[in-house]
Amino acid sequence: MLNCCIERKQSRENTALNFDSAEGSSTDEEEFFDCADNPDEENKRKEKYSLWNQPVGRLGKFNDLKLLRTGDPLYIPVTQEPVPKSEDQLEEDTDVLMKLGSDAQGSELRAKMMSASLLSDMESFKAANPGSVLEDFIRWYSPRDWIESEDLDEWGQKKGQLSSRMMIEDNFWVQTWESAKPVPAHRQKRLFDDTREAEKVLHFLDSTNLCQICEMLIPVLCHIAIYRLAEECRQISHELPDSVDRLRALIKSAERISREIVASKFVDVQI
C-alpha cells in the first residue's frame, strides 16, 4: 500500500504538471483540488466549469454511439483510477457488503457506498460530453441497463430505454446524476488520498511489535525462497526430472498454510 501511495502521488504530480503546461500558467483555483473543506467553494468551482460548456477530459469515441439529444459523438471520459485496497481492507468491505443482503434496501445501501466513485465518473462523463443525459451515461457505464429496440432514432442508431431498476422514481442513480456537475477528473476531489493512506501505513508500522513484523515477513521470505528454487530447478531439471513436480507441491503447501493462518486469525477475531 505504501508503494502504491508513492506511485499515485508521483503520477498525480506529473498529471498536474502536464495540465498546467497545456493550459498555460496556472493559479491556485486552476490546480487539482483534493479536499472540500468549504462545500460552497467546491460548488462554485463546479459551476464555473459547467458555465464553460466545453468538452474536457476526453479519452476517445465510444464505438459509433451518439448523444441522444444532440447527435454528437459519445466520448469515453478520462476518469480517476480505482481506489487501491489491501487484502484486509477488501475483506472488511466484503464482510460489510454480505451483511447488507440482496433485497432492495441492501442494493440501495450498496449503491450509496459506491456513491463517491459513481459521482466522480458522472462528473467526468458530463465534462467530456456536454449536453448528455443519464441515458447516455448508462449506455457507456452500464450497458445491461439500456434495453435496445429495433427502431432507429433521428441519428440512425437504435432506440432504447432504461431498465426497470433505473426507471424507479427518485432512484439513487438519478439523484446522483442530477447532483453531478461537469468537472474533469483532474479537477475533482481525489477518491484516494495517498497522503492520508501513507500516514496510516507508517503509523501501523510504528505501532507494530517485532513479532508481528516477523509474521508479516514470512510470506515475503517464502515467496523469495520459492522463486530461488524455481531458478535452481531450471538448471538441474535434466538431473532431477521430478524437481518441477516437487516445486509445485511445495507451492501448494505454502498456499494452504498461508490460507489456514488467515482463516485461524479470522475465527479468533469472530470469537
UniProtKB/TrEMBL annotation:
<dbReference type="GO" id="GO:0005737">
    <property type="term" value="C:cytoplasm"/>
</dbReference>
<feature type="region of interest" description="Disordered">
    <location>
        <begin position="18"/>
        <end position="41"/>
    </location>
</feature>
<feature type="domain" description="Rab3GAP catalytic subunit conserved">
    <location>
        <begin position="53"/>
        <end position="205"/>
    </location>
</feature>
<dbReference type="InterPro" id="IPR026147">
    <property type="entry name" value="Rab3GAP1_conserved"/>
</dbReference>
<keyword id="KW-0963">Cytoplasm</keyword>
<dbReference type="Pfam" id="PF13890">
    <property type="entry name" value="Rab3-GTPase_cat"/>
</dbReference>
<protein>
    <recommendedName>
        <fullName>Rab3 GTPase-activating protein catalytic subunit</fullName>
    </recommendedName>
</protein>
<keyword id="KW-0343">GTPase activation</keyword>
<feature type="compositionally biased region" description="Acidic residues">
    <location>
        <begin position="26"/>
        <end position="40"/>
    </location>
</feature>
<dbReference type="GO" id="GO:0005096">
    <property type="term" value="F:GTPase activator activity"/>
</dbReference>
<comment type="similarity">
    <text>Belongs to the Rab3-GAP catalytic subunit family.</text>
</comment>
<dbReference type="InterPro" id="IPR045700">
    <property type="entry name" value="Rab3GAP1"/>
</dbReference>
